[in-house]
């Protein structure tokens, strides 16, 4: 397997996020987990600093032969994480942020998911998809309709009963809170 940048191994704790439009208004990721996690903040692809350097310098993998920051022709999800050891009880997750107005653009969302799976070479993990939307949807039923449409696209390739989750990031939300019990739970909320 190719060495990929970015990469960070973490335990329970808080990882800061660089303010950028493609991660809503979130400041950090809070991990409430018991096992170590491999985190790839693929948001680095679009969140380079003013000097053009990586905004997540502490996530750089110096041995990488694949670098998210160097991709310009494909769109990737913003976050990928998984248990460091993959087995039947462990899992992986891809997080895509989107404006609520675009929730029904499920072909685009699925394309980003597939791009990320292919670029990371993780199809065998059958990663869970979480769509975090910010701003109002176009119509009231867009959330349930988007979930139904994405589930149809993901079911053939997923080992989850519910292959997709859609969660809301309000303007007040400060953190992406990731909890693991039997499966990963991802919500946007405030630090308390």
What does this structure look like?
- It is a single chain.
- The protein has helices spanning 106-120, 142-154; strands at residues 4-5, 8-10, 13-16, 28-32, 37-40, 66-67, 79-83, 92-99, 128-134, 164-168, 175-180, 184-189.
- It has 192 residues and is α/β, with parallel strands linked by helices.
- The protein has one domain.
- The longest helix has 15 residues, at 106-120.
- The chain starts with a strand and ends with a strand.
- The model has no long low-confidence stretch (mean pLDDT 86).
Structural class: alpha/beta
**pLDDT averaged over residues:** 86
Strand-residue proportion: 25-35%
Q: What is the CA–CA distance across the termini?
A: 39 Å
- The oligomeric state of the chains shown is single chain
In spatial order, strands of the major sheet run 2-5-7-8-9-10
| Biggest sheet character | 6 strands, mixed
Based on Cα principal axes, name the global outline. Answer: globular
Helix content: 10-25%
How many helix segments? 2
- Enumerate the spans where pLDDT stays under 50 for 5 or more consecutive residues: none
């Amino acid at each position: 397997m190719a060495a990929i940048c970015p990469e960070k191994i973490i335990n329970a704790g808080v990882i800061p996020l660089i303010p950028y439009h493609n991660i809503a208004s979130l400041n950090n990721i809070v991990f409430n987990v018991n096992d170590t996690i491999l985190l790839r903040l693929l948001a680095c692809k679009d969140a380079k600093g003013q000097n053009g350097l990586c905004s997540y310098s502490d996530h750089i993998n110096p041995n990488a032969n694949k670098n998210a920051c160097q991709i310009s022709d494909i769109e990737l999800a913003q976050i990928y994480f998984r248990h460091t050891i993959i087995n039947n009880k462990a899992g992986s997750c891809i997080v895509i942020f989107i404006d609520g107005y675009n929730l029904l653009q499920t072909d685009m969302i699925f394309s980003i998911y597939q791009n990320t799976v292919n670029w990371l070479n993780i199809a065998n993990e059958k990663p869970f998809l979480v769509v975090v939307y910010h701003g109002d949807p176009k119509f009231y039923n867009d959330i349930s309709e988007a979930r139904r449409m994405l589930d149809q696209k993901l079911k053939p390739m997923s080992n989850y009963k519910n292959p997709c989750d859609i969660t809301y990031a309000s303007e007040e939300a400060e953190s992406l809170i990731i909890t693991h019990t039997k499966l990963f739970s991802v919500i946007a909320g405030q630090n308390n």
